[in-house]
Every structure is written in C-alpha cells, then in structure tokens.
Structure of GMC family oxidoreductase:
Amino acid sequence: MKHFVQLSQIPRSPDYDYCVIGGGPAGLIAAHELSRRGETLLLEAGAASPESSYSELRAATTDSVLVSDHGVHPANPWTLRGPGGGMERYAGILVRYRAQDFDRSAAFAHASADPRWPIGYEDLRPYYDEVERRFGIARTTGLDPTEPPSCAPLLPPHPPSARAELINEAFDELGIGHFPTPLGVNSRPFARRPACTRCGPCNETLCRTGAKASVLPLVLGSGSEHRLRLAHAVTAEALRVDPSGRVSAVECLDTVRGRHATIRARHFVIAAGALNSCALLLRSTSRLHPHGLANGNDQVGRGIQFKLTGYADVRAPASAQLRESPTLFSTTATTDFYHRLPGGGCGGFLYEASASDRPDTIRLHFVVSETPMAENSVAPAPSSADGPNVVIRHRTHRSDLRRLRSLRSIAVDTLARIGRGVRAQEEFNATGMAHLAGGCRAGTDPRTSVVGPEGRLHQCDNVYVADSAYFPYAAAANPTMTVIANALRISRQLAQHS
C-alpha cells in the first residue's frame, strides 16, 4: 500500500497536532477526522501486506498467552494486525447496537464491572447515521423487532442465498421472525463502489471488486488536502509524560529498521485494539504513574470481554437445489431472542454463516454477549526476549454458558427442520480472538472507569481511547459499526475542542 510508508520516510516534524496509535477502523476514522483540523500522524504496528492470507496474518501475531478455564494457550490479542485491521477481511455485517445495550445493568446485576455506558443510543445515533451515509448498508426496515431508530435504508437488502431460503423456511415453521442480514456490501453501486457480483467468499478475504465497505479506502482516497501521514510496521512501546502531567511523546520501534524513535504530539488517540490499547497504557510507567498511565485506581486492563459464539451446521438434503457456492457470508438473521432467551437472561444474535469450503453445508452462527467482569484482565508480560508480549486472564461466567447453550439449542432446532445429523460446537477463543472489547472502560466515576464519556483518560487530559477498549459492555451484535461511530464521535469532539 503506497500510502503507508516506513517511519524513516515520514518527515520528522518536531511536533504533530495529533498522533493516532493503531490503523484499524477506529484509528483510521479518527485520523481522517483529525487531519481536517491539524497535522496528524498515524502509527500502525502491522506491515502492509494485502497479498497475505487471513490465516497467515493471524499466525504472525499469535504471540501472547491466554490463561482461562481451558488451560494456558498461545493467544492472539488482535482481531487482525495491519492497515485497515479486521475490517479488511470481515464478513461485511454492519449492525447498530440496540438502545438497551447502552444500559444492561438489570440483565447483568451479577457483573463485577458496571455494564452501563456513560452515553446512550441517541448520543451515538447521528454518528451511526453518518457512517451509514458514508459507506452504505444493504438492509431493510420494519422486520427486525429490536431495530433502533435510524436513517432510512440507502441500499436495498441482498436477496437470500439458497441456503438462507431453507433457513427462512425453518424459521417460519418455528414461528421465528427473520430479516435480511444488514451488510456493508453494495447491493447496487454506491459511494463510488460497484455492486457486489457474488464473485467469491466474503469472510476472511479481501473484496475483489471493492463492493465491500471499509474505512481504509475512504482514508487512502481522502486527497492531499488532509494533513495525514501514515506509517506502518511501527510498534508503540510507551507514552511519555512531561513534568506537567501531560503526555508529550510516544516511544516507538521501527520494526523494519530495528530502531527506536520518539514522536511528539499535542494530543494522542489510542486505537491499537482493545487488549493492546490497555497494554500500551500499562507499559507507560513514570514517576507520576508508577503502575501505568491512568491506572491509579487499578482499572486499566480490567473488564475485557470476548465474543461468546458457536456454529451449528447440517448437510443440505439431496432434494435441495443449491444454486451457487457460498459467496456472501450471511443473508438472513433473527433477533427474536436478542433481548431475552426462553430460559431467561439477555439473549443473542443468530444468523446464516455460510462456509465457503463446504458448499453442501447450511450453517448458523450463534452469538451471546459476555458478562463484564473486573477480574477478566490483560497486562504486558514480564520482559523476556522469547516470551509472550501480553498475558490475558479470562474465565467465562456460568450464566453466559447457560445463555450460549440456550441459543445453541435454538440453532440446532432450526437446522433439524432442514436435515438430519445437525452438529453444533461452541467456541471459546482458545487461540484466536475477535470482537474484543473493554479494558479502558468508559464511565463518569474515575474510581471504576478509565476514560470519560468523551474518551479522554480521567488521569491525563490529552490522551483519548477511541477503539473498543472504551466499551463498558460489548453487546451480542457485531461491533464494527459501533466502533467506527464512536471513534468518529470521539475524534470530532476532540477536533472541535483542541
């Protein structure tokens, strides 16, 4: 990617107005917004390598350790490292959190970390709408019982796949409502992107035609009028505090040249991925912050949340006329069990999840949210040349397991209407992780949170957290749209007041 260059090729300005750490969707949208206001530098740890496969990119960053109910395993603390982050290889699912997701305190009274956001859906709604206007989302309206207020759909939904038609018939037999999965994949030309031709599988691959929405092309095509410089293969090691208590610089490593560098800026925005954003703050020790930046109350790294998920699948009956190999990952979904499951408790999201390597298989993905628990944490590993970079400690709350298995049963019952021999498996992020959140949780009380509603650290007034580390509660819905909308909100407010 010619727009991303090595740090040695960046003009060494003595001071930037803004330094953004992390080049995933949150960091990119923040840097794009801030560059309208002042000189902005974005530092991305991953190298620009679009030719690499998803599995190669994942394997390259399995450099941490997860200590969990299932033992001690190698772990990947990134959704995907590299310019664009996980959105470059995502399935295209773009959904909003529901209004209730911003205050789930009643459903999670047993949580040891407060699930309440310091903002509500209406605070984020204009940014959700703006994200939709920028990228386009192929969806319908009126069929999703949990659908929050929003702008009118800009693109018609994608028609159901042959597999989704069978799922929908099974849903109908069981009295389960359904609707086309909202996708950031053009159903007709929009925003200078072509319509999807269903030329190949969407999930874990780059889009061949550019029909799939992503923040990276928006930033790379923003034009020279934006004062933005992009550097890849740069690891942020620590933030440095001056005698006044403000962060004045980031110490980083140019991994191509193997050289350390110091970058100065007036304001810093952290968007390194939830776990690595926490680790960066904890590595940033000083006389004023001996236990890590903004960690005076031992809150940084606490309350991390994973995606609790699984898949159920069945072989298509011989009579089924599957017209095509799987291309779009998902074209039908239900939220009938999103707010509450039959056995009680906050519910989850259930949707078609086609497997591109199994064209005769019909598959459902079931996802529930996780109880925010303060004891689930992340921290930098003790220094060791050959050891892990990050240590993650996590256990799954028993109530979450009950809810996951309840939604799994619904998925199995649905597929049993289609064929025999349904298989189902739960996933617990033993070696790889996605939809990570928490650790720099937002709130109004500095004793129990790391950042305020505007994303600014309680204990340092020129550093902001703009990625999913901000989330006090990560809902069952896919988080990408909320990550982008909240990062847009945080960066715009910063630009306006700095």
The longest strand covers residues 259-270. The two ends are 31 Å apart (CA to CA). The helical segments are 25-34, 54-59, 121-135, 162-174, 215-220, 274-283, 398-416, 480-496. Residues 67 and 393 are 5 Å apart (CA to CA).
